[in-house]
Design a protein that fits this description.
Blueprint: E1 10-14, H1 19-30, E2 34-39, H2 42-54, E3 58-63, H3 69-83, E4 88-91, H4 106-134, E5 138-143, H5 156-176, E6 181-188, H6 194-207, H7 211-219, H8 231-243, E7 253-256
Parallel strand pairs: 1-2, 1-4, 2-3, 4-5, 5-6, 6-7
Helix pairs in contact: 1-8, 3-4, 4-5, 6-7
The structure holds nicotinamide-adenine-dinucleotide.
Length: 263
């Protein structure tokens, strides 16, 4: 039983076949929202949707490459056709590519920007048009990162993209306020998902450390308790913000990181 109430609301979560996006989709569904599970990986999205449905929730697998305008528009329209509206967008799909800046190829840089920033722009534009035309307003929540606020060696493309989301969210908050649309950035610390599990051996190799040293000396060094942030912790903050009425919190970023980077 959720302590949040999203009965009658429709959400779309991108990158929801795995990790943080999947967790957000499950929490939103438990709060009563119908949820579009959007991902490049349609089979994975359909599995998550089926598992939410098996628990009594309403969910739909949606094929979507967030970097492709036609795919984004089609996926959001499909969700609106099936569930009747879109009230909550969680713009979450993301990738990580780790290199020293002199070794990044332009294609790698572009790939990171296109999924994080083009994806956030395209999904926002498609969703907000529906939020405005329905007159219902809505909430748009971006998955940022502690790296929306802090730099990190080897992650120039990711850090630049995650900082960019703050500017996009703040602008959406200003533009959307008169029409009932709020925008937020949720900024997790390190969470054990496939995205992070892939980084650990890569960073160990580049930095000449063991994997345990990367975890203790790089990833969790500045937390208050040496703990990873969990998917459920991030998903609960997203669900809280999706439920929170009015403009009091709009435009803000919320760091969910066990004390790593206190604003
Ligand atoms: P993940 O790899 O578990 O999940 C990412 C999902 O995004 C996958 O299902 C993947 O198929 C999907 N995806 C990738 N490219 C896509 C595209 N073009 N279109 C649609 N879907 C696409 O990763 P995660 O750790 O859950 O990351 C989710 C978000 O959280 C990302 O934006 C990431 O930057 C952010 N984040 C993660 C952490 C962490 O420690 N895991 C920390 C801070 C922020």
């Amino acid at each position: 039983m959720s302590r949040y109430n999203l009965e009658g609301k429709v959400a779309l979560v991108t990158g929801a076949a795995s990790g943080i996006g999947e967790g957000c989709a499950r929490w939103l569904a438990q709060a009563g929202a119908a949820v579009g599970i959007a991902d490049l990986n349609l089979a994975g999205a359909q599995q998550v949707a089926a598992s939410i449905a098996a628990e009594g929730g309403r969910a739909l697998g949606v094929a979507m490459d967030v970097a492709n305008e036609d795919a984004v528009n089609a996926g959001i329209q499909h969700t609106v056709d099936v569930f009747g509206s879109i009230d909550i967008l969680v713009s979450n799909a993301g990738i990580q590519i780790v290199h020293p800046i002199e070794e990044f190829t332009f294609n790698e840089w572009r790939r990171v920007q296109s999924i994080h920033l083009d994806g956030a722009f395209l999904t926002t534009q498609a969703a907000i048009r529906h939020m405005y035309s329905s007159g219902r307003g809505g909430a748009i929540i971006y998955t940022g990162s502690v790296h929306s606020h802090l730099a990190s060696k080897l992650k120039s493309a990711y850090v630049a993209a995650k900082h960019g989301l703050l500017g996009l969210a703040r602008t959406v908050a200003k533009e959307g306020a008169q029409r009932g649309v709020r925008a937020y950035v949720v900024c997790p610390g390190f969470v054990r998902t496939p995205l992070v599990d892939k980084q650990i051996p890569e960073q160990a190799k580049t930095l000449g450390l063991s994997e345990e040293e990367v975890i203790r000396q790089v990833m969790l060094k500045d937390t208050v308790d040496g703990q990873f942030t969990t998917i459920d912790e991030v998903a609960e903050v997203v669900t809280f913000l999706a439920s929170f009425p009015g403009n009091a919190l709009t435009g803000q970023s919320f760091v969910v990181s066990h004390g790593w980077f206190m604003q």
